[in-house]
Amino acid sequence: MNELLLAELKSEHINMLDTLVLAEEFIFGAGIKPIPQVQALADHCLAEIEDIEDELTQAETLINELFVNQLFLDKKHTLWPVSSHQIVPSLLYRIMSPALKCILLSHIIKHCGFEGNIVYVPEKLMVQLVCDEDYTIIFDPIVGDSLTWEDLSLRMSDSDHFINFQQVEPLSDKEVLLKHFSSLKEALIRENEYRKALKCIDVILALKPDDPYLRRDRGFLLHQLDCFKVAYDDYRYFVEQCPQDPAAQLLKLQLENITITDTILH
């Protein structure tokens, strides 16, 4: 992993878009530069609303521009393909995984002069657009539907304190990136892209060092790539850190059957 990406991942103030670009280059190799495409879209959206005086009307026009005119409206997918986690292909085909779409939407919203946050409203990521002190819109990044007060109250019914649209706490940049890269990792494994998935786990471990479940997943990928020695070390770490986990108990029995031969370096 290059030093610039590692520095971004460990920074207290992460630029999510720049971090995504660096991570994509690390995982997939160099390709078309995505920043100019994202910036062109953000500039276009700003031009569409800058002559509107009322902030609430601006916000509603911006959401309509994105989901109708810019074709951000999508359907819910059971599984998101690898391409939907990459900036350029996702913009080209307008199929964006939830976390990536939230990151792009929040970037465009901020470029247009609003406060844009990514929030977790039970069961899904959503985007929070703050118009002013009185008006905040929380909307679904996939279909563009805004939450009503009744929707929010129902979803937040388990909360211990009163919730309104302004009080829904934004996720941290690291939390959002973890959700994005975790989804990408799962997609890469589904599509048998084990080497790329291994790099993706390295990115996640930079955000969440020594997580035993990530070490277990890395062990699985290394095992698939015939790198038994390092896989064994990761499996053993998981077993030691999570001895009560049923998977750890099963894995402990299997470790004895792993033959450690010459290590293949990845």
TrEMBL record:
Could you list the residue ranges forming a coiled coil in this record?
A: 42-69
| Domain called Protein SirB1 N-terminal: residue spans | 37-179
Kindly give the Gene3D superfamilies that the UniProt entry links to this protein.
Tetratricopeptide repeat domain
What does the sequence similarity comment in the record state about its family?
Answer: Belongs to the UPF0162 family.
Protein name as catalogued: Protein SirB1 N-terminal domain-containing protein
Q: What are the record keywords, sorted?
A: Coiled coil
| Tree of life domain | Bacteria
Which Pfam families does this chain map to? Answer: TPR_9 (PF13371), Transglut_core2 (PF13369)
